[in-house]
Design goal:
The complex is a heterotrimer of chains A (137), B (327) and C (542). Helices cover 40% and strands 17% of the residues of chain A. With 137 residues, chain A is α/β, with parallel strands linked by helices. Chain A has one domain (8-129): Rossmann fold (3-Layer(aba) Sandwich). Chain A has a four-stranded parallel β-sheet, sandwiched between helices. In chain A, helix 1 crosses helix 4. The longest helix of chain A is centred in the middle third of the chain and has 18 residues, at 77-94. The termini of chain A are far apart. Chain B has 13 helices and eight strands. Chain B has a five-stranded parallel β-sheet with strand order 2-1-3-5-8, sandwiched between helices. In chain B, strands 4-7 form a two-stranded antiparallel sheet. Chain C is of the alpha+beta class and 542 residues long. A four-stranded mixed β-sheet of chain C has the order 9-8-7-12. A three-stranded antiparallel β-sheet of chain C has the order 2-3-4. Chain C has a three-stranded antiparallel β-sheet with strand order 13-14-15. Strand 6 (123-124) of chain B pairs parallel with strand 10 (321-324) of chain C.
Amino acid sequence: MSKFEPRIVGLMCHHCSYAGADRAGQSKSPLPTGFLPVRVMCTGRIRPEHIMAALQQGADGVLVLGCHPKDCHYRTGNLRARAAVGLTSRLLEGLGLHPERVQLEWVSAAEGEKLARVVNAQARKLRRLGPFRPASG
Amino acid sequence: MSKPRIAFGWLASCGGCEEAVLDLNETLLFDVAPQVEIVFWPVAIDAKLHHLEAIEPQGILACFLNGSVRTREMAEMARLLRSKARILFAFGSCAHLGGIPSLANTTTTRDLLETAYRSAPSNAGRNKHLPGGAGRVPPLTAWAHPLKDLVEVDYFLPGCPPPPALVAEAFLALLAGKLPPRGHVFGEEQALCSSCSRLPKKPEDLTIGRLRRVYEVEAPADECLLAQGLLCLGPATRGGCGERCLKANMPCRGCFGPPADVADQGAAMLTFLAAHAPVDSGEQAVLQFTESLVDPVGTCYRFGLSPAVAGCYRESSKTGRTRARRG
Amino acid sequence: MKKSRGISKAKAKAGAKVKAGAKARAGAKARADAKARAGAKARAGAKVKAGAKARAGAGTRTIRINPVTRLEGHGRIDIELDRNGEVSRAFFVALEFRGFERFCVGRPAEEMPRITPRICGVCPTAHHIASTRALDDLFEVTPPPAAEAVRELVYNAFFLEDHLLHFFVLAGPDLVLGHEAPVAVRNILGLVQHLGQEAVRKVVETRKVARAIIEQLGGKVIHPVLGLPGGVSRRPDGQTRELAARAAALGRQTTELGLGLLRDRLPSVAADRRWDVLRTHYMGLVDEKGRASFHRGEIRVVGPAGNEVARFDVHDYLEHIAERVDPDNYLKMPYLRQVGWKGLVDGADSGVVRVGPLARINAARSMASKRAEQERQALFTHFGGYPVHDTLAYHWARLVECLQACDRLEELSRDPVLDDPCIRNPVGLPSGSGIAAVEAPRGTLVHHYRCDSAGILTGVNLVVATVHNAAAINMSVERAARAVIRAGEVVDEPLLNQVEMAFRHYDPCLACATHALPGKLPLVINIIGPGGTVLRRVRREV
């Protein structure tokens, strides 16, 4: 029986977290194999539909990783993401999704280690929770 | 030349769409009715199922069908009417999107039945066995469905119920042979905000610090309700209803469904809310704002929690947490 | 130890299952054969075109009236004939289910006045006002007088137009045109031909004006939105008084038209309806003086002799109203808990209770308006005294209530309180529970909510009008079937319409009655031996 390797869609901003992911890669901090990085210029670009679509199309979890508050290249884009993720999480939990599947964290370009830690922690949680299999309509 | 035949059908409905037709009053009784032969309309006319079955396929010009599909028998009725009618209108929110009864899609049919037969406080005695099973009643479908999940729909009349003016528009277009292209949703293309009479007083900066519940606010008669912190679904709802609820000072709850080119009404509303979050007041303020949204499921999807949405995010019982009981 | 118990238990179960299985298979085969015969015959009968006939003959069969028409909701009547062609049982079967009591859990309490009206689009205002009052209770707030007046105005306008809808559009065609009028004529369109455009225009205009009041104050007439805990959402304006006065005036004219038609036709209709006299209990809301009230007060129950059996506040409803759940039935049947369930029988010892117009005029000591009381007394005189048990009298009682609604509309149109700007009293967070009752046009309606400390609903119980009449409707339909369907005689469409008329008196709303249940009246007959054991159970597939 093959071990379940969760598919995690990582929505990351060009200026901070995506650069952090590069750093993690350079320093050879291993990221779980199921991690799917997606780069956006700013996490403020992320809408509820993106998170919902990721889950619909096979993700077991979604991580939104943006700049620390006050560091956003576009001023408040990261806080827009905070709002979008917060609202969407509440909706999805109301529909029966486990609350730990969608998470948001702040990761700067220099925090490669933190990024690896965060992603691996999410992968561990999801391995425990199991694959996301919707009841489906 | 014989008159065109019209039929009205109802599935899991409340009867409000029937009343909407009756509210055409003289237009219905003295203008439309004399021009057509109404071959099926259970609320008003004694035509029975066998009369309907005896009509040749495509023998009815148009059928206006309201209600969502909730039992197998209703699924059969939907297919029957589709086969008998050349043109099928999904009439009202339930047929269009699933309607308020689609909130039942937050849980299973077993749960619905258990609530009624076991836990209702007025039940007499301990009821060990749940009624259920095939044969007694038409079995429930696993989900409450909008009409288009089962049959091809030609036109959609949105609203809970559709306003008389919209119904009249559809009737008259039908009888004049001037219907828009198939698939058309009646009403406006844009969101309700665009035509709302409160728009002139909408503030330039519509940052919402905290959403408030309707009993917390005494809303002024002519100002944007979102600016008062009330959750009004105007930005995510198709216009064309005449802003009837707003005229009574109550916020829109989205019965017309999403505007044209928007697939997911609830997600669109959340996008709007995120766009107006108090980002200039810092992270804590944003978190408080997100916490102030009460019952996103029951408010942002009230008229259309279709299986496509309700099922997509619910964990099956084998993984994760079992479905949440709260909205 | 546990394991062996489990195994022997399982063995015993398996053994029983085998026996039961064999019996069941034999029984099932017999039933299937009967069903096939009944089904084939019923289908053959059902496919007959209007005007053609079917003979009731040898062999059991089921006649189905599908769907029932000129009421709100999905239903079917199943009439079972025995080998001799006599009616053995008849069932009024509701075919819908949506589950409001479950899916309202998790919703904010204050949204209920905008959700529960979707139980029924014919009587949404009943649910809307009941819900709003339950919220007043939940939030522990008393609305200001202007708000109460607005709610009452809306409610009386609604009562008037809904009753007129039933009289002229739903039941009227039977009463005025006769049950034998052809299908194509026996409806509102045929009524236009018979009564003339002018009379029908008057009815239409009355309903239009009454509904305009609801629309003006409630935003929408179908699913109004004005109700809030502690008040209403908008104030009356200049038009309101005028509309109310106009509705009252037109309403009186239209009601008198209806009364005239009824008096003309009653002798010929009543002759046919001697079978439908049910000596049941009656229930309705009354005010502090015992006068019929549509939207507030205590619940009063009288027995078949007119004696007061109970009078209680809605908060105590669970002590008085029980709902019978039979694992073989889908529709619960409410009954008077303290009298007890004795089956589908009438009488003082039976907990079967009726609601709606006839029940209300029986349950009250008097009407609240002079003209209405006058007409109530005329009704009693005609039917031979108080209380009246003839189901046909429901139609007359409905018009009595219209007169009361008109009088109240006129009073409110002159009431200075409508100018008071205070329409809301402030509220805090709700908690605990809230219960309210109103009289929907079709009967007593209870909304009962429980919520958590955040004001989110944790429990919802609804006892909805028509469901109280489920037992009585069943009894009336069966009596009608027995009376009009005789062995050896032709069973034609007009006859079947007579059976349908038995439920039309009640003006049933099946969407209301089945909000929570796949409504289904018994298709299982339990033949019970002297010791209370079930000797035989006869089921019909539906």
